[in-house]
Every structure is written in C-alpha cells, then in structure tokens.
Inverse folding.
C-alpha cells in the first residue's frame, strides 16, 4: 500500500470512503424498506386503489398463527357480514390486516353484493362495492363501507 504524502490527499481518500459508505448504507436501507412493504390484498369487485382512496388499507395479516387457523372462521365471518345487510350475497372474503378509521388489526374483509345500498357522500349514488370488516374471534361486524369510485 502506498503511503499518502499530503493531508489533502488523505482528506480526499477519507471523503471518498465516507461517500461510498453513506451511499451503500442508503441503498441497503432502501432495499430493506422495499422488501418489507406489506402486500396489498385485492378484491375482484373493487381495486385496492379505490379502497385506499376511501381510507381502507388491506394487507397480509400480521399474525401468521391466526392466519393459519382463520380459514375455519371464514364462513361465520361471511354469515355475520351478510346478516348485517339483510342477507346480501357474499362476493369474496379475505383474512387481512385491516386499517380503516380507528381499526388497525387482523380481521375478515368481506365483499358483499352492494345492489341494495347507496354510497354516501356529497352526491349519493348506487354503490359499486360494499365491504364489511369482521372480528375473527367474536364475528362482530367492526365497520362497513359502501362506495363508488369517483367518475
């Protein structure tokens, strides 16, 4: 290894190493962050971006153990959601981590046929989706949201 003879050359070497280490750290942090991004749950009847516009975020469940045993609770959750809307037909359901308003937990997200529901908002219109979040343990309906994407 060649010995550096001046302070200026040493300073350039240290600065170059600092930039390289900092850049490498930022790239590594960015990679970790993107690989830890939650996977979004989607429904055939309503795209995730429409739900997000209404403040509803559904991702893979946090608790893998609960997710593994939740399939036996799918039908009771669907029944509870349907019953809350006079027997509306279930389109599909997913066990997910649900974030909406004051809800931030794993639950059943049940998509129901919205044909008998109007969306709320400045101009009420026929809803294009009806989503009900159901507690996986108690089968209690936590919240329901009907909506229609903006034209």
């Amino acid at each position: 290894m060649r010995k550096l003879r001046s302070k200026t050359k040493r300073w350039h070497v240290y600065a170059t190493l600092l930039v390289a280490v900092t850049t490498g750290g930022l790239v590594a942090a960015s990679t970790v962050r993107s690989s830890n991004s939650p996977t979004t749950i989607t429904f055939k009847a309503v795209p995730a971006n429409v739900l997000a516009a209404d403040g509803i975020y559904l991702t893979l469940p946090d608790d893998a153990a609960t997710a593994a045993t939740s399939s036996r609770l799918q039908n009771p959750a669907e029944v509870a959601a349907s019953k809350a809307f006079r027997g509306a037909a279930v389109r599909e359901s997913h066990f997910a981590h649900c974030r909406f308003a004051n809800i931030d937990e794993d639950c059943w997200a049940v998509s129901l046929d919205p044909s008998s529901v109007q969306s709320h908002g400045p101009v009420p219109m026929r809803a294009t989706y009806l989503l009900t979040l159901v507690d996986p343990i108690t089968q209690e309906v936590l919240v329901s949201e009907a909506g229609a994407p903006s034209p």
